[in-house]
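hey can u run this one w/ magnesium ion bound, need the structure tokens asap thx
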Amino acid sequence: MTSGPVLSVRDLKVEFASRRGVLRALDGVSFDIGRGEVLGLVGESGAGKSLTGAAVIGLLEPPGRIVSGEVRLLGERIDALPERQMRAVRGRRIAMVFQDPLTSLNPLYTVGQQIEQTILAHLPVSRREARRRAIDLLKEVGIQGAERRADAYPHEFSGGMRQRVVLALALCAEPDLVIADEPTTALDVSVQAQIIALIRKLCLERGMAVMLITHDMGVIAETADRVAVMYAGRIVETGPVAALVGAPLHPYARGLMAAIPRLDGDRERLAQIPGAMPRLQDLPRGCAFCPRCPENFAHCHVERPELVTRGEHRVACFLYGDGLADRAGDDGAAPAPEMDGAPGEAVP
Ligand SMILES: Nc1ncnc2c1ncn2[C@@H]1O[C@H](COP(=O)(O)OP(=O)(O)O)[C@@H](O)[C@H]1O
Ligand SMILES: [Mg+2]
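ok here u go:
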């Protein structure tokens, strides 16, 4: 077993080719996830979070494809494996959990049967042993009366209990990595908190790496050890959760933080980031967030910022790094746009 990260993604680029041209949906995405660590991948809808998960697990739907970069699982390249080998990796070493638990469950079999079958498919154990392990797994994910509930069908469980069953299924093959894509989004807030706590517990106790994909900064704050904030197919800030939640640097990350739902559930008063994420086919020339950014200056319109290290953070924003912001307006590259106007229109 290696001492390096469980998952290592380097400079991942994903494109969709169409008759109208090539869309780059992921552009230079890099991150690591270690044993017992939850990496939270957060960003608005369309940022590229699910594509990142799909690319890692080899489930990009054509014409989407990885055009460059590397994905390593315990040091071994998995981004160019033949489909048959990739299927083995998916079943055995990487498990997926989706927003809707019913997509992972067969309505025609009891949950016990499904877990037993999955165990038998992956591990060299007897039926009897598979049954025993299935019940242990149901207990581990917090199903009360597991011996009895094992004989119930998916429709006999509530949404939160179903997601627990899906987590038990994901654990059957003792995976190194779990990719959970919006696992709590369909659940009531109180149930969300329980599933989040369960994911954290399983990650720590089993030493798994977890990629937690969500649009909800609140979920990230509760669950993740480290955070990667995505915008328009790129990571714009990463860092430990305390640093990122406590003192986000990127104006987009700050906007997401302001949008964490309050405990009293009054969503009306959420601060929203004005505007919308640009479509991939009309990304602005400079920073993709620039048109919505309250702090943009001339240079943001002409060059795309790369990630730079700032304390515990890595951040892709010209406010940080090389003092460009201090020279705002006199870098000679473009006329300074009106700071309070519609900045996106300042560049032809
Ligand atoms: N089949 C596809 N064809 C073309 N573009 C796609 C396709 N699937 C996804 N995309 C592009 O990738 C972007 C990111 O998608 P996705 O990863 O699903 O976002 P999210 O962060 O909401 O999970 C989408 O906004 C879209 O522009
Ligand atoms: Mg998604």
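Residues 49-50 surround magnesium ion (ligand 2) (CB under 6 Å). anyway lmk if its weird
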